[in-house]
Amino acid sequence: MNPINSINNLPANQEGMKKTGNNDLFSGVSFEERLKSAVGQVNNLQHTADDASEAVVRGELGVHEGMMALQEADLSLRFLNQVRSKAMTAYQEIMRMQF
Questions:
Q1: Residue 76 domain boundaries
Q2: Is residue 58 part of a domain?
Q3: Per the domain annotation, does 21 fall within a domain?
Q4: Which end of the chain is more exposed for a tag (fewer CB within 10 A), N or C?
């Protein structure tokens, strides 16, 4: 259920990067594909949180489980917003460069 778990599969240090090879790690996947995937996962978490909140109101799900789904959706949206902000900042810096 947690889309961020896929990040845990990445090597945590430089030694891990050397073992797997930096080119092998990201080969075949473009930034656009990764971004679309992340937006899709955040969207799915938002829908799951909506369903969980409705289930809590109907009494089909406990309050704790509903709050956990809402928090997970909130954190994923905040994380995606930070990535967007960093990407926009990088784009603006590139546009300011003089060649």
A1: 30-99
A2: yes
A3: no
A4: C
The contacts of residue 37 (CB under 8 Å, 6+ apart) are: none
Number of domains in the chain: 1
Q: Is there a domain that residue 88 lies in?
A: yes
pLDDT per residue rounded down to tens, the chain (99 residues): 444 444 444 444 444 444 445 555 667 888 889 889 999 999 999 999 999 999 999 999 999 999 999 999 999 999 999 999 999 999 999 999 977
SS (H, E, C) 7-75: HHHCCCCHHHHHHHCHHHHCCCCCHHHHHHHHHHHHHHHHHHHHHHHHHHHHCCCCHHHHHHHHHHHHH
Q: Which helix H or strand E contains 99, and what residues bound it?
A: none
